[in-house]
Amino acid sequence: MASVWAKSIANLPVLSVICLLLLCLPPGGGQKKKENLLSEKVDQMMEWSSRRSVVRMNGDKFRRFVKAPPRNYSVIVMFTALQPQRQCSVCRQANEEYQVLANSWRYSSAFSNKLFFTVVDYDEGADVFQQLNMNSAPTFMHFPAKGKPKRADTFDLQRIGFASEQLAKWIADRTDVQIRVFRPPNYSGTIALALLVSLVGGLLYLRRNNLEFIYNKTGWAMAALCVVFAMTSGQMWNHIRGPPYAHKNPQNGQVSYIHGSSQAQFVAESHIILLLNAAITMGMVLLNEAATSKGDVGKRRIICLVGLGLVVFFFSFLLSIFRSKYHGYPYSFLIK
Q1: H helices of 118-266, where?
Q2: In this predicted model, what pLDDT tens digit does every residue of 53-111 receive, in sequence order?
Q3: Residues 6+ apart with CB under 8 A from 236
Q4: Which of 17, 33, 35, 94 could form a disulfide with 162 if both were Cys (CB 3.0 to 4.6 A apart)?
Q5: How many whole angstroms separate alpha carbon 126 and alpha carbon 120?
Q6: Can you say how many angstroms the Cα of residue 12 is from the centroid of all Cα atoms in its chain?
């Protein structure tokens, strides 16, 4: 017992030194380290953003600056496949709109370290795609400053399109950061209009002594049909929403020209609808010609059969596309 007391007394100076050291250590050492790490990450992101509006990231950078805490800033990430061998035309179109949006934010007066734009290319970060179970590109995601991304933090590209204005509206909903989109001046429309006016003016000048063609009903009818075909095929919707031309599945390389939802469409789809409507209209014109003309009966019969074939076949095709988009539609004709 005496030896035990002796050892305890001998250890008292050591315990006193340890307690004294603990009392002398500055409080919040772990918190200070966390703040330093956060400051380094923010400074690094600001440095990259000063060089280019969209920061390119590989797997390591993504995990360190986007996924790993601490982080007090939001990150918009575009997952894409821009390499030529990927043949992703939609990715290139979306990247152009994304660059416009990022530049608008970078050079605005409201620019701060609360929001950054980044991109992860499949060929530079395939492990990130696998980690997120992502099998299509392009895809836009928002990684909030706190917490994990929710369902609404993935941009609905197929329904809304990838126009810069639509992306800016989505970012405002997710981060409360308002971005006013500034597009570089594009004079192609003005030049095209000037050329068209010059062409029409030159044609009228050359035909100034014979302007009977202005009263040509067939010409005006064709022009009116072109406008109707453009409007009924969804060209105005394309202009407003900016959808992709088509969609290529990166897994099997299959290209889809018809969107599977009734709430969206591809540009190629509107072109297909335009051609189908034109073919049906041509069939109706031939049927009318066969019924009203007074030519050879055999020739009229051939025209009638051709017109009827155009109407039946292409209307069946148009109805099948309608069925594929409006799931549950019960009617079909020839083509299912």
Answers
A1: 126-131, 157-160, 164-175, 188-206, 217-232, 235-241
A2: 999 999 999 999 998 888 899 999 999 998 888 878 788 888 999 999 999 999 988 89
A3: 230
A4: 94
A5: 9
A6: 70
